[in-house]
Specification:
Chain lengths: 240, 240
C-alpha cells in the first residue's frame, strides 16, 4: 500500500515569546519546531511515500529548508494554503490529482493531518492507511474524559447533557481512499460547501461508506499556543 | 457567602507503580498526593467554610491523617462513599442536611468536586460559589479542542458530527444553592434515578434554573492513572 500525506500547516507561524524578550518563529518541543516532529512521524511511516505541505507564503522557504536539512526526503511539495483549512487541503489535492493523472496512478490512500499534531506515531499512521484502504475512510479518535453539554439558548448557561458513552473526540491523520477524497473535495469546491473536517466532507458525498474509528491514546494533541508547550514537553518526554 | 464543599474521592486509591518495583498508594504530583493539592485549593478558597470527603473505607484514616498533618482545618468529615459517585455525594449531603437541620442554617451553596482535579484555583472556587448563589447553579467548563462525533450504530464507525461551537466540556467543582442540591439529590434517591453529574440532576428537578457556565482554561484536568502524571506535573510547574 502507498499513501500520500497532506499536512495542513498554515497555523504554525505563531510567534512564540520566550523569557528575556526573545522570540522564535515556531513553537518548539525538545529543541525542534512542532512541525519537525510531525514531518518526522510521516517520514518514518512505511506506508507513506510522499508528503505535501500547505502553509502560509511566508513559511514556504522555511519549511523547505527544514525538510532538506533534516533529510526528510518524502516532502515533495510545500505550497501556499488557501483562505480556510479546507481550501489548503484542496490546493494539495488538485496538485496530487494533476500530478498523477498523466501516469494514471493515484496512491491507494490520501491522509490529511494537522501540522500541529506532532505526536502521532509512525505505526499509527500505517494502521490508518491500511484501515482507510480497507474501509474507505478511517479517522483517529478517543473518548472524551469530561462530560459534554450543549451551550444553551442563553449562551451564558448550559443546555442538554450529551450521552458521553456515545461520543468520540476526533483527530488527524484522517485517511481515505484517494479517489473518494479527491471526488468529495471536488464536489465541495463546486458547491462552495465547507465541512468541519475531511471526514464530514466524505460522509456527505459518500454516505454509504461509514468512517472507521481508530482509537488512539491521549498523546495525539494539537499544539497551537505557548500555553500548550509544557504539556507537550511532558508528552514528548513520556513517548521517548 | 459561605459554602460547603463535597469532595468525591473514592477513586484516589489506585496504586501507582514506580520505577524499581516500588509502589505508592496515591498518585503524586510535586511530591504530594493529588488529593492533597485538591484539599489545599479548597482550604485557600475564602468562601468555603467546611469540606466533606467521601472515600473508600480503606482510605478514611489516611485522609484524616493527611488533613491533620497538612493543617487543613476545613476538613470536617471523611466518610465512606457509596456504590456510585452519586451515592457518595448523597451520603455527604445527608450528613450536611442532618447536621444543619437543628440550627436551621444551611450554607449558601454546596460545591461538589472530583478529588482527582487538583488544579482548580482558590479564586475559581470562590467565583463558582458566588455565581451559584446568584444563579442557582454554576459549573466550570471549557471548549472542546477536537471535533466531537457520535459513535455510529455500527460501533466501529463514526456517526454524525456535532457542531463544536455549541459544545462545552464540563468539569467540577459544580456549585448549587444548598437547598436546590439537597432537594434534587433527595428526589433522585427516592426515584432511584442516576445522572451523569450533579448539574444534570439539578436540571431535572429544577428545569427553570439554567446552570450558569463558568469558563476556565485547560488546567482543571482529572488525574486518574499514572499515564496522566507527566502532563499533570507540567501543568503543576506552569501554575506555580
Amino acid at each position: 500500500m502507498n499513501a500520500i500525506a497532506i499536512i495542513a500547516a498554515s497555523g504554525i507561524g505563531k510567534r512564540m515569546q520566550l523569557p528575556g524578550g526573545r522570540s522564535k518563529q515556531l513553537l518548539e518541543i525538545g529543541g525542534f519546531p512542532v512541525i519537525h516532529h510531525t514531518l518526522k512521524a510521516f517520514e518514518d511511516a512505511s506506508q507513506v511515500t510522499e508528503v505535501y505541505i500547505a502553509t502560509k507564503a511566508d513559511n514556504i522557504d522555511l519549511l523547505q529548508d527544514m525538510a532538506r536539512s533534516a533529510g526528510f526526503r518524502k516532502v515533495r511539495h510545500v505550497i501556499e494554503g488557501g483562505k480556510e483549512r479546507q481550501d489548503s487541503v484542496w490546493n494539495c489535492i488538485r496538485m496530487i490529482s494533476d500530478g498523477h493523472s498523466g501516469a494514471g496512478e493515484l496512491p491507494d490512500a490520501i491522509l490529511v493531518h494537522d501540522g500541529a499534531r506532532p505526536f502521532i506515531r509512525p505505526e499509527e499512521i500505517d494502521d490508518i492507511v491500511r484501515l482507510s484502504v480497507e474501509s474507505g475512510a478511517c479517522v483517529p479518535g478517543n473518548r472524551p474524559k469530561d462530560t459534554i453539554k450543549y451551550i444553551g439558548s442563553d449562551p451564558s448557561c448550559f443546555g442538554a447533557t450529551l450521552e458521553r458513552s456515545r461520543l468520540m473526540q476526533v483527530q488527524t491523520p484522517q485517511g481515505f481512499r484517494a479517489g473518494m477524497l479527491i471526488d468529495a473535495h471536488h464536489r465541495a469546491a463546486e458547491e462552495g460547501w465547507y465541512a468541519t473536517d475531511d471526514a464530514a466532507l466524505v460522509e456527505r458525498y459518500f454516505p454509504d461508506y461509514p468512517v472507521r474509528i481508530y482509537e488512539t491514546g491521549y498523546h495525539n494533541i494539537k499544539i497551537t499556543t505557548p500555553e500548550d508547550i509544557p504539556v507537550a514537553e511532558a508528552i514528548y518526554q513520556a513517548l521517548l
